[in-house]
Design a protein that fits this description.
The chain has three helices and four strands. Strand 2 and strand 3 (44-54) form a beta hairpin. The protein has a four-stranded antiparallel sheet, covered by helices on one side. By secondary structure, it is an alpha+beta fold.
Length: 130
Amino acid sequence: MNMQFKNLRIAELSLKAASRLLTEEELNNEMSFTLGYNKNGDKDFSVVFNISIENLYIQLKAIAIASFETDEVLDTNFIASPFVKINAPAIAYPYLRTFISNITLNAGYQPIMLPTLNFVKLAEEKETNN
């Protein structure tokens, strides 16, 4: 099966200056990150990134959708496969990292560099929690 990354679209974006400067002790969790998966048609699917970042200066929330297409009809086994849960997010994540870095820089803040993620570990944790 041949697979192609089509694009990363930002479905929702909120970027706000912090209403007040927070102290380090007040920050609970600087970044929250979740993944979702959708079968869009017979031959395409998407990975949905939901990210929330709060630091001393800004609050950022974004929903980004990475679209992929194949040359074969997708079945439910494929959507549950490691490729969709591990490889596809790993292919799209650098585009999201670049977008977040650029949008914060262009908004006049120090650019936020998202951490590298281990998508194998994330998939294993999600399986354990389900």
